[in-house]
Write a structure and sequence with these properties.
The complex is a heterodimer. Chain A is mainly beta. Chain A has a single domain, classed as OB fold (Dihydrolipoamide Acetyltransferase, E2P). In chain A, β7 and β8 form a beta hairpin. The longest helix of chain B has 4 residues. The chains are: A mainly beta, B mainly beta.
Chain lengths: ~100, ~100
């Protein structure tokens, strides 16, 4: 899984039936120092997070199928909200 | 999933059986601030999008699962038509 920041949202009325009822958020992968690290991704939100929050992203179809209840055309799913990380002494608490 | 602009259509009379009945569109991938992001490609349409529409798409094995018959040779599928994008690039963090 990747740690990401929520950096935006995409609103779509017309979408594949598998996505009905889900919020689509743009997430930016970040490194241990909370800096942008890679390309932003459009992900399905399963845990109701908001802008600026640090989240856990699972980017694999099988995992997405488990969380969303059925195998389907989704890879990127937000599966948690990060409270803090502690990596070799560099401690990071929840902040936005 | 990522954003793209539909720039055209693609017709193919001869195609594998699992693709019969599906529309093929030419799309140009975009970043979330809507600037070009790579070479155009062909994607299967599931939402009746058309040229000019801003859409989002899924790639790889999951793209195939969007169709009624999930065992098909598809690697990109359009999943929705975008009404609105709100995006603020992340500038936080630091040394």
């Amino acid at each position: 899984m990747k740690i990401c920041r929520v950096v935006g949202e995409v609103v779509a009325t017309v979408k594949h039936t598998y996505l009905h009822g889900y919020k689509l958020l743009i997430v930016q992968p970040v490194d241990h120092a909370d800096r942008s690290n890679g390309r932003p991704i459009l992900a399905v939100d399963c845990v109701d997070v908001g802008p600026g929050e640090r989240i856990l992203l699972s980017d694999e179809g099988g995992a997405a199928g488990l969380v969303l209840g059925a195998e389907g055309p989704v890879r990127a799913v937000i599966v948690g909200r990060v409270d803090g990380t502690d990596v070799l002494g560099s401690r990071s608490e929840k902040s936005s | 999933m990522f954003l793209a602009r539909v720039t055209g259509t693609c017709t193919a009379t001869i195609k594998t059986e699992n693709l019969h009945g599906y529309r093929l569109l030419v799309v140009e991938p975009l970043t979330f601030d809507l600037s070009p992001d790579g070479e155009p490609f062909v994607a299967v349409d599931t939402v009746r999008a058309g040229p000019g529409d801003l859409v989002f798409y899924v790639t790889s094995r999951e793209a195939a699962k969007a169709l009624a018959e999930p065992f098909n040779p598809v690697d990109a599928t359009i999943m929705g038509i975008v009404d609105e994008v709100r995006y603020q690039p992340w500038t936080g963090g630091g040394p």
